[in-house]
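Review form for a predicted model. The reviewer records the input and the model, then writes brief findings.
Reviewer: anonymous (R2)
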Amino acid sequence: MQRWRGLEDIPEDWGRSVVTIGSYDGVHRGHQLIIRHAVDRARALGVPAVVVTFDPHPSEVVRPGSHPPLLAPHHRRAELCAELGVDAVLVLPFTKEFSNLSPADFVVKVLVDKLHAKAVVEGPNFRFGHKAAGNVGFLTEQGRVYDFEVEVVDLYVSGDAGAGQPFSSTLTRRLIAEGDVRGAAEILGRPHRVEGVVVRGAQRGRELGFPTANVETLPHTAIPADGVYAGWLHAAGEAMPAAISVGTNPQFDGTERTVEAYAIDRVGLDLYGLHVAVDFLAFVRGQARFDTLDALLEQMTEDVKTCRELVAEASGRG
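Model under review:
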C-alpha cells in the first residue's frame, strides 16, 4: 500500500481511482463499512482505492485547543486501511490555508486534479470545505460536472454500547473515557489500543515483583479511565497477556497519569526504548489506595489472576 503526505506526494502518472475522505479516527466498524464499499467499488471498476485523511484533526485548526483524544495514530490507521484492501492513504496537512478552501476548490484540487476520482464513497453526514459547507448533495452535483460518481453508505447501528446510536468516534471516545473498553471494542471491532515508547519510571512494580512497562503515550491519545484492566502488551512482534494500570498511583502519592503494563508470567523482559502497543480487553477495578503495602500486594496478585483468566477466555483458552 502506498502512503502519501500532501498532494505533492501523489505520483504524476496517477490514474483514475475510487476515493473516500474523512478523519477516520479509529477506523471503527462504521468507517470499515465505507472503506470496504470503496474497495469493492474500486475492484469492480479496475482502479485503486484511496483513503484521504487529515493531520492534525481539523478541529484543532478551526478551534485551537479542541483537538479530540485520538483513537489511533496515523500509522495505525494506515495499517487498518491496508488490512481492508486500500491501495493508498493520503494524509493531507490540515492548515489554516487548507481550511479556507471552498468545497468547489477542494473538489478540483484534491479529487479532480490529483486523484482523478472515478467514484467517491462517503457516509450520509460527510461535510467538507470551508466551514464544512460542502455535503454529499453538493459533491453529487460536482460529480456530474467532473465525471465521478458519488455513493453514500448508510452506517449500521451499534449494539448495546451504542444504545441505538450510529457508530461514531465521539461515542467511542466517551466510552473509553468512562473505562468501558468492552463497549468501545464493540464499535471499533477490536480492542482499543494505546501506543508509545517504554520509558523508565519509579520502578516500584519491579520492587513489588510485578515489573511493568511504563508507556510514554503519543500526544492526544485517548486513554481509558483510571483503573486496572486486562489486555495485551504487544512488543517485539509478540502479544503477551497483560495486567494494565492507568492512573496516578495514589498508593505512592503520584501526580502524573501513566499507563503501565505487566506482562503476565514473563520474566526478564527488557523493553526500555521499544515502541510498544497496549490493547485494552476489560475493566477489572478502579484505582484505589490501600491501608498497607501487604494489602496492595494481595490485591495486585488477585488482579493478575483475574487478568490472566480474562485474556485466556478471550483467546479461547478459558
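Findings: The chain has two domains: 2-152, 192-314.
Further findings: The chain has ten helices and twelve strands.
Recommendation: see findings above.
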